[in-house]
Write a structure and sequence with these properties.
- By secondary structure, the chain is α/β, with parallel strands linked by helices.
- The chain has 2 domains: 3-43 and 157-231 and 319-405, 3-Layer(bba) Sandwich (FAD/NAD(P)-binding domain); 91-150 and 233-316, D-Amino Acid Oxidase, subunit A, domain 2 (D-Amino Acid Oxidase, Chain A, domain 2, 2-Layer Sandwich).
- It contains 10 helices and 19 strands.
- The two termini are 37 Å apart.
Length: 410
Protein backbone atom coordinates (compact mmCIF):
# COMPACT_ATOMS: atom_id res chain seq x y z
CA UNK A 1 0.00 0.00 0.00
CA UNK A 2 1.31 3.43 -0.94
CA UNK A 3 2.20 5.95 1.74
CA UNK A 4 -0.39 8.74 1.93
CA UNK A 5 0.54 12.41 2.30
CA UNK A 6 -2.01 15.14 3.00
CA UNK A 7 -0.94 18.76 2.44
CA UNK A 8 -2.89 21.73 3.79
CA UNK A 9 -2.38 24.87 1.72
CA UNK A 10 -2.13 25.16 -2.06
CA UNK A 11 0.25 28.07 -2.50
CA UNK A 12 3.70 27.75 -4.01
CA UNK A 13 5.05 25.86 -0.98
CA UNK A 14 2.18 23.38 -0.73
CA UNK A 15 2.24 22.66 -4.47
CA UNK A 16 6.03 22.31 -4.50
CA UNK A 17 5.90 19.82 -1.61
CA UNK A 18 3.14 17.88 -3.39
CA UNK A 19 5.15 17.67 -6.60
CA UNK A 20 8.23 16.39 -4.79
CA UNK A 21 6.31 13.89 -2.68
CA UNK A 22 4.56 12.48 -5.77
CA UNK A 23 7.57 12.48 -8.08
CA UNK A 24 8.69 8.88 -7.49
CA UNK A 25 5.17 7.43 -7.67
CA UNK A 26 5.57 5.82 -4.25
CA UNK A 27 3.02 8.02 -2.49
CA UNK A 28 -0.58 9.10 -2.81
CA UNK A 29 -0.63 12.87 -2.36
CA UNK A 30 -3.58 15.19 -1.75
CA UNK A 31 -3.63 18.97 -1.34
CA UNK A 32 -6.54 20.75 0.36
CA UNK A 33 -6.98 24.45 -0.37
CA UNK A 34 -9.75 27.01 -0.29
CA UNK A 35 -10.06 29.28 -3.30
CA UNK A 36 -7.62 29.26 -6.19
CA UNK A 37 -4.35 27.40 -6.01
CA UNK A 38 -1.24 29.56 -5.99
CA UNK A 39 -2.94 32.67 -4.60
CA UNK A 40 -2.25 35.13 -1.77
CA UNK A 41 1.51 35.54 -1.18
CA UNK A 42 2.33 33.62 -4.35
CA UNK A 43 0.04 35.74 -6.47
CA UNK A 44 1.51 38.96 -5.05
CA UNK A 45 5.12 37.96 -5.69
CA UNK A 46 7.56 39.50 -8.12
CA UNK A 47 9.20 36.08 -8.44
CA UNK A 48 12.73 37.17 -7.52
CA UNK A 49 15.39 34.53 -6.92
CA UNK A 50 17.79 36.87 -5.18
CA UNK A 51 19.38 35.44 -2.01
CA UNK A 52 22.37 37.79 -2.25
CA UNK A 53 20.35 40.98 -2.67
CA UNK A 54 17.65 40.14 -0.15
CA UNK A 55 19.83 38.55 2.55
CA UNK A 56 22.77 40.94 2.77
CA UNK A 57 23.83 40.47 6.40
CA UNK A 58 25.78 37.21 6.73
CA UNK A 59 26.07 33.65 5.37
CA UNK A 60 23.92 32.12 8.12
CA UNK A 61 21.68 29.04 7.89
CA UNK A 62 18.88 31.04 6.28
CA UNK A 63 21.17 32.35 3.57
CA UNK A 64 22.51 28.83 2.98
CA UNK A 65 18.97 27.52 2.51
CA UNK A 66 18.18 30.33 0.07
CA UNK A 67 21.39 29.77 -1.88
CA UNK A 68 20.74 26.04 -2.04
CA UNK A 69 17.27 26.70 -3.40
CA UNK A 70 18.61 29.07 -6.06
CA UNK A 71 21.02 26.36 -7.20
CA UNK A 72 18.13 23.89 -7.49
CA UNK A 73 15.98 26.19 -9.60
CA UNK A 74 17.13 25.45 -13.17
CA UNK A 75 16.55 21.70 -12.89
CA UNK A 76 13.35 22.18 -10.86
CA UNK A 77 11.89 24.68 -13.32
CA UNK A 78 12.77 22.43 -16.27
CA UNK A 79 10.97 19.51 -14.63
CA UNK A 80 7.84 21.61 -14.08
CA UNK A 81 7.93 22.86 -17.65
CA UNK A 82 8.32 19.34 -19.02
CA UNK A 83 5.38 18.02 -16.97
CA UNK A 84 3.09 20.98 -17.57
CA UNK A 85 4.06 22.03 -21.08
CA UNK A 86 4.22 25.65 -19.90
CA UNK A 87 7.03 28.18 -19.61
CA UNK A 88 7.53 29.41 -16.01
CA UNK A 89 9.39 32.52 -17.14
CA UNK A 90 12.78 31.78 -15.58
CA UNK A 91 15.10 34.61 -16.61
CA UNK A 92 18.74 34.75 -15.49
CA UNK A 93 19.18 38.48 -15.77
CA UNK A 94 21.38 39.06 -12.76
CA UNK A 95 20.76 42.02 -10.47
CA UNK A 96 22.04 45.53 -9.87
CA UNK A 97 21.98 46.83 -6.31
CA UNK A 98 22.37 50.59 -6.26
CA UNK A 99 23.10 53.13 -3.50
CA UNK A 100 22.89 56.90 -3.81
CA UNK A 101 24.91 57.97 -0.74
CA UNK A 102 28.65 57.55 -0.18
CA UNK A 103 27.98 56.49 3.43
CA UNK A 104 26.38 53.32 2.05
CA UNK A 105 29.47 52.24 0.10
CA UNK A 106 31.38 50.74 3.06
CA UNK A 107 28.64 48.27 4.08
CA UNK A 108 28.22 47.47 0.39
CA UNK A 109 31.91 46.53 0.18
CA UNK A 110 31.70 44.43 3.35
CA UNK A 111 28.69 42.58 1.98
CA UNK A 112 30.44 41.98 -1.34
CA UNK A 113 33.44 40.29 0.35
CA UNK A 114 31.50 37.51 2.05
CA UNK A 115 29.12 37.07 -0.89
CA UNK A 116 32.01 36.65 -3.32
CA UNK A 117 33.41 33.99 -0.99
CA UNK A 118 29.99 32.31 -1.09
CA UNK A 119 30.05 32.19 -4.89
CA UNK A 120 27.92 35.17 -5.92
CA UNK A 121 30.26 36.22 -8.72
CA UNK A 122 29.42 39.77 -7.66
CA UNK A 123 31.44 42.84 -8.50
CA UNK A 124 31.52 46.41 -7.26
CA UNK A 125 30.15 49.00 -9.67
CA UNK A 126 31.08 52.64 -10.16
CA UNK A 127 28.47 55.21 -11.11
CA UNK A 128 29.63 55.00 -14.73
CA UNK A 129 29.33 51.21 -14.76
CA UNK A 130 25.81 51.40 -13.31
CA UNK A 131 24.84 53.85 -16.07
CA UNK A 132 26.22 51.44 -18.66
CA UNK A 133 24.31 48.44 -17.25
CA UNK A 134 21.07 50.36 -16.59
CA UNK A 135 21.02 53.56 -18.65
CA UNK A 136 17.46 54.45 -17.60
CA UNK A 137 18.38 54.67 -13.91
CA UNK A 138 18.54 58.15 -12.41
CA UNK A 139 21.92 59.82 -12.42
CA UNK A 140 23.80 60.37 -9.19
CA UNK A 141 24.41 56.83 -7.95
CA UNK A 142 27.34 56.51 -5.56
CA UNK A 143 27.97 52.89 -6.50
CA UNK A 144 26.49 49.46 -6.53
CA UNK A 145 26.85 45.70 -6.87
CA UNK A 146 26.26 43.52 -9.90
CA UNK A 147 25.28 39.95 -8.97
CA UNK A 148 25.11 37.74 -12.09
CA UNK A 149 23.89 34.63 -10.23
CA UNK A 150 20.46 36.06 -9.43
CA UNK A 151 17.34 35.45 -11.52
CA UNK A 152 13.56 35.69 -11.48
CA UNK A 153 10.47 33.78 -12.56
CA UNK A 154 6.95 34.80 -13.49
CA UNK A 155 5.16 33.89 -10.24
CA UNK A 156 1.59 33.44 -11.59
CA UNK A 157 2.86 31.37 -14.51
CA UNK A 158 5.00 29.27 -12.20
CA UNK A 159 2.05 28.62 -9.88
CA UNK A 160 -0.21 27.62 -12.79
CA UNK A 161 2.46 25.34 -14.29
CA UNK A 162 3.18 23.79 -10.90
CA UNK A 163 -0.52 23.06 -10.38
CA UNK A 164 -0.68 21.39 -13.80
CA UNK A 165 2.51 19.40 -13.11
CA UNK A 166 1.00 18.10 -9.87
CA UNK A 167 -2.11 17.00 -11.73
CA UNK A 168 0.05 15.21 -14.30
CA UNK A 169 1.63 13.20 -11.48
CA UNK A 170 -1.77 12.24 -10.08
CA UNK A 171 -1.81 14.60 -7.10
CA UNK A 172 -5.35 15.13 -5.80
CA UNK A 173 -6.06 18.87 -5.62
CA UNK A 174 -9.23 19.66 -3.66
CA UNK A 175 -10.94 22.92 -2.93
CA UNK A 176 -12.37 22.73 0.59
CA UNK A 177 -15.66 24.61 0.45
CA UNK A 178 -17.14 23.48 3.75
CA UNK A 179 -14.40 24.38 6.22
CA UNK A 180 -12.46 22.02 8.48
CA UNK A 181 -14.27 20.46 11.40
CA UNK A 182 -11.81 18.09 13.11
CA UNK A 183 -8.29 16.71 12.98
CA UNK A 184 -7.42 13.38 14.59
CA UNK A 185 -3.90 12.04 15.02
CA UNK A 186 -2.91 8.51 16.04
CA UNK A 187 0.53 6.94 16.41
CA UNK A 188 1.88 5.06 13.42
CA UNK A 189 1.18 1.37 13.85
CA UNK A 190 -1.38 2.04 16.56
CA UNK A 191 -4.44 1.07 14.54
CA UNK A 192 -6.33 3.34 12.16
CA UNK A 193 -4.86 6.07 10.02
CA UNK A 194 -2.21 8.28 11.67
CA UNK A 195 -4.00 11.35 10.27
CA UNK A 196 -7.75 11.83 9.82
CA UNK A 197 -9.17 15.18 8.78
CA UNK A 198 -12.86 15.96 8.39
CA UNK A 199 -14.52 18.97 6.81
CA UNK A 200 -17.74 20.64 7.95
CA UNK A 201 -19.64 19.28 4.95
CA UNK A 202 -18.59 15.70 5.70
CA UNK A 203 -15.57 15.25 3.43
CA UNK A 204 -12.82 13.23 5.09
CA UNK A 205 -9.17 12.52 4.38
CA UNK A 206 -6.93 9.83 5.82
CA UNK A 207 -3.16 9.91 5.54
CA UNK A 208 0.10 8.78 7.06
CA UNK A 209 1.62 12.27 7.09
CA UNK A 210 0.21 15.80 7.38
CA UNK A 211 2.16 18.71 5.86
CA UNK A 212 1.07 22.15 7.04
CA UNK A 213 1.81 24.75 4.37
CA UNK A 214 -0.91 27.22 5.28
CA UNK A 215 1.04 30.45 4.91
CA UNK A 216 -0.18 33.45 6.86
CA UNK A 217 -2.84 31.35 8.61
CA UNK A 218 -0.33 28.93 10.17
CA UNK A 219 -0.52 30.60 13.58
CA UNK A 220 -3.81 28.83 14.21
CA UNK A 221 -2.08 25.48 13.76
CA UNK A 222 0.81 26.49 15.99
CA UNK A 223 -1.68 27.12 18.77
CA UNK A 224 -3.46 23.87 18.04
CA UNK A 225 -0.26 21.97 18.78
CA UNK A 226 0.63 23.94 21.90
CA UNK A 227 3.13 26.33 20.31
CA UNK A 228 3.11 30.12 20.51
CA UNK A 229 1.49 31.61 17.42
CA UNK A 230 4.45 33.22 15.66
CA UNK A 231 3.37 33.26 12.01
CA UNK A 232 1.48 36.44 11.19
CA UNK A 233 0.37 38.20 7.98
CA UNK A 234 2.25 41.12 6.47
CA UNK A 235 0.43 42.82 3.62
CA UNK A 236 2.67 43.28 0.60
CA UNK A 237 1.52 45.71 -2.09
CA UNK A 238 2.99 45.73 -5.57
CA UNK A 239 2.38 47.45 -8.90
CA UNK A 240 3.49 47.26 -12.51
CA UNK A 241 4.13 49.80 -15.24
CA UNK A 242 3.75 49.31 -18.97
CA UNK A 243 7.16 49.94 -20.52
CA UNK A 244 8.87 48.53 -23.62
CA UNK A 245 10.64 45.19 -23.17
CA UNK A 246 14.39 45.56 -22.65
CA UNK A 247 14.24 49.06 -21.22
CA UNK A 248 15.25 47.74 -17.77
CA UNK A 249 17.78 44.95 -18.25
CA UNK A 250 18.36 43.52 -14.77
CA UNK A 251 16.55 43.26 -11.47
CA UNK A 252 17.26 46.57 -9.75
CA UNK A 253 17.39 46.90 -5.96
CA UNK A 254 17.53 50.07 -3.89
CA UNK A 255 17.12 50.57 -0.17
CA UNK A 256 13.44 51.43 -0.63
CA UNK A 257 12.11 49.38 -3.54
CA UNK A 258 12.94 46.94 -6.32
CA UNK A 259 12.07 46.75 -10.02
CA UNK A 260 11.83 43.63 -12.18
CA UNK A 261 11.12 43.65 -15.92
CA UNK A 262 8.79 40.90 -17.15
CA UNK A 263 7.92 39.96 -20.70
CA UNK A 264 4.88 41.63 -22.18
CA UNK A 265 5.95 45.23 -21.46
CA UNK A 266 5.66 44.89 -17.68
CA UNK A 267 7.95 46.53 -15.13
CA UNK A 268 7.02 45.28 -11.66
CA UNK A 269 7.77 47.45 -8.63
CA UNK A 270 7.54 46.33 -5.03
CA UNK A 271 6.99 46.13 -2.30
CA UNK A 272 5.14 48.32 0.13
CA UNK A 273 4.56 46.41 3.38
CA UNK A 274 2.35 47.02 6.38
CA UNK A 275 0.48 45.18 9.12
CA UNK A 276 -3.22 45.02 8.27
CA UNK A 277 -4.33 41.74 9.77
CA UNK A 278 -5.84 39.51 7.10
CA UNK A 279 -6.89 42.43 4.90
CA UNK A 280 -5.36 42.24 1.43
CA UNK A 281 -6.88 45.41 -0.02
CA UNK A 282 -4.71 47.70 -2.13
CA UNK A 283 -4.30 51.18 -0.62
CA UNK A 284 -3.48 54.54 -2.17
CA UNK A 285 -0.82 55.08 0.50
CA UNK A 286 0.97 51.80 -0.21
CA UNK A 287 1.00 52.16 -4.00
CA UNK A 288 1.75 55.87 -3.72
CA UNK A 289 4.99 55.07 -1.92
CA UNK A 290 6.05 52.81 -4.80
CA UNK A 291 5.13 55.49 -7.33
CA UNK A 292 7.31 58.08 -5.58
CA UNK A 293 10.34 55.80 -5.43
CA UNK A 294 9.85 54.66 -9.01
CA UNK A 295 9.89 58.26 -10.18
CA UNK A 296 13.11 58.93 -8.27
CA UNK A 297 14.90 55.82 -9.49
CA UNK A 298 13.62 55.88 -13.08
CA UNK A 299 12.79 59.41 -14.34
CA UNK A 300 10.90 57.87 -17.29
CA UNK A 301 8.23 56.77 -14.78
CA UNK A 302 7.73 60.23 -13.24
CA UNK A 303 4.67 61.06 -15.34
CA UNK A 304 3.38 57.51 -15.61
CA UNK A 305 0.79 55.75 -13.45
CA UNK A 306 0.98 52.02 -12.73
CA UNK A 307 -1.19 49.97 -15.03
CA UNK A 308 -1.90 47.34 -12.37
CA UNK A 309 -1.63 47.10 -8.59
CA UNK A 310 -2.32 44.21 -6.24
CA UNK A 311 -1.60 42.86 -2.77
CA UNK A 312 -1.18 39.62 -0.88
CA UNK A 313 -0.47 38.39 2.64
CA UNK A 314 3.08 37.31 3.38
CA UNK A 315 3.56 34.83 6.24
CA UNK A 316 6.20 36.29 8.56
CA UNK A 317 7.75 34.78 11.69
CA UNK A 318 9.46 36.46 14.64
CA UNK A 319 12.95 35.85 13.27
CA UNK A 320 12.16 36.04 9.57
CA UNK A 321 12.93 32.36 9.04
CA UNK A 322 10.39 29.73 7.97
CA UNK A 323 9.12 26.81 10.00
CA UNK A 324 10.37 23.61 8.37
CA UNK A 325 10.46 20.30 10.20
CA UNK A 326 8.63 17.56 12.03
CA UNK A 327 6.81 18.55 15.18
CA UNK A 328 8.05 17.19 18.51
CA UNK A 329 5.48 14.78 19.90
CA UNK A 330 3.61 14.59 16.60
CA UNK A 331 5.71 12.52 14.18
CA UNK A 332 2.89 12.57 11.62
CA UNK A 333 3.07 16.37 11.29
CA UNK A 334 5.53 18.38 9.18
CA UNK A 335 5.50 22.18 9.08
CA UNK A 336 6.48 23.99 5.87
CA UNK A 337 5.31 27.56 6.39
CA UNK A 338 6.30 31.09 7.34
CA UNK A 339 8.48 31.87 4.31
CA UNK A 340 7.60 35.59 4.39
CA UNK A 341 9.27 37.30 1.38
CA UNK A 342 11.06 34.20 0.10
CA UNK A 343 8.37 31.64 -0.70
CA UNK A 344 9.05 31.60 -4.45
CA UNK A 345 12.81 31.34 -3.94
CA UNK A 346 12.59 28.69 -1.23
CA UNK A 347 10.02 26.43 -2.90
CA UNK A 348 12.44 23.82 -4.34
CA UNK A 349 14.62 23.62 -1.22
CA UNK A 350 11.60 23.40 1.08
CA UNK A 351 10.07 20.66 -1.06
CA UNK A 352 13.34 18.74 -1.00
CA UNK A 353 13.50 19.10 2.79
CA UNK A 354 9.92 17.82 3.19
CA UNK A 355 10.70 14.82 1.00
CA UNK A 356 13.78 14.08 3.11
CA UNK A 357 11.63 14.23 6.25
CA UNK A 358 9.09 11.86 4.69
CA UNK A 359 11.98 9.50 3.99
CA UNK A 360 13.19 9.95 7.61
CA UNK A 361 16.52 11.41 6.57
CA UNK A 362 18.47 13.74 8.85
CA UNK A 363 19.19 17.26 7.59
CA UNK A 364 21.36 19.21 10.06
CA UNK A 365 20.57 22.53 8.35
CA UNK A 366 16.91 22.22 9.36
CA UNK A 367 17.76 22.66 13.05
CA UNK A 368 17.68 26.42 12.46
CA UNK A 369 14.08 26.20 11.22
CA UNK A 370 12.52 23.90 13.84
CA UNK A 371 8.84 24.76 14.43
CA UNK A 372 9.39 24.57 18.22
CA UNK A 373 12.22 27.10 18.37
CA UNK A 374 10.01 29.87 19.82
CA UNK A 375 8.47 27.70 22.54
CA UNK A 376 10.79 28.75 25.38
CA UNK A 377 10.07 32.43 24.74
CA UNK A 378 6.35 32.02 25.42
CA UNK A 379 5.34 31.21 28.96
CA UNK A 380 3.10 28.24 29.36
CA UNK A 381 3.44 27.01 25.77
CA UNK A 382 4.38 23.34 25.69
CA UNK A 383 4.09 20.37 23.39
CA UNK A 384 3.01 17.01 24.84
CA UNK A 385 5.61 14.24 24.83
CA UNK A 386 3.31 12.02 22.79
CA UNK A 387 0.47 12.76 20.42
CA UNK A 388 -3.02 12.43 21.86
CA UNK A 389 -5.59 10.28 20.06
CA UNK A 390 -7.58 13.36 19.09
CA UNK A 391 -6.15 16.84 18.68
CA UNK A 392 -8.42 19.44 20.32
CA UNK A 393 -10.39 21.36 17.72
CA UNK A 394 -9.70 24.94 16.89
CA UNK A 395 -12.67 27.25 16.65
CA UNK A 396 -14.61 26.52 13.48
CA UNK A 397 -13.63 29.87 11.99
CA UNK A 398 -9.99 29.61 13.05
CA UNK A 399 -9.44 26.08 11.82
CA UNK A 400 -11.20 26.75 8.54
CA UNK A 401 -9.19 29.88 7.89
CA UNK A 402 -5.91 28.26 8.87
CA UNK A 403 -6.17 25.15 6.78
CA UNK A 404 -8.14 26.38 3.80
CA UNK A 405 -6.95 29.87 3.07
CA UNK A 406 -3.25 29.60 3.86
CA UNK A 407 -1.03 30.25 0.87
CA UNK A 408 2.73 30.84 0.94
CA UNK A 409 5.51 32.70 -0.93
CA UNK A 410 6.95 36.10 -2.10
Amino acid sequence: MKERVLILGGGIIGLACALEAARTGEREVAVVERGSFGGQATGAAAGMLAPYSENPEQPDAFFQLCQDSLNRYPEWASRIEELSGADVGLRRTGSVGVVFHEADLLPLQSRLRWQQAAGSGGELLSAAEIARLEPKLAAGAAGGIFTPAEAHVDAPRLAAALEQACRQLGVRLDGCTGGLASLELRPHGGGGSPVRLTTENGESYEADHLVIGTGAWTGEFEQLFGLPATVHPIRGQICSYEVPDGLVRHMVFSSQAYWVAKSGMRLVCGASEDVAGFCSDVTAKGIGRLERWSARAFPMLADMKPKLSWAGLRPATRDGRPLIGRLDGYPQVIFAAGHYRNGILLAPATAAAVLALLEEKQLPLLRAFRPERFRSSSAGAAVPAAAPAVVPELSAAGLAAAAQRGRDGR
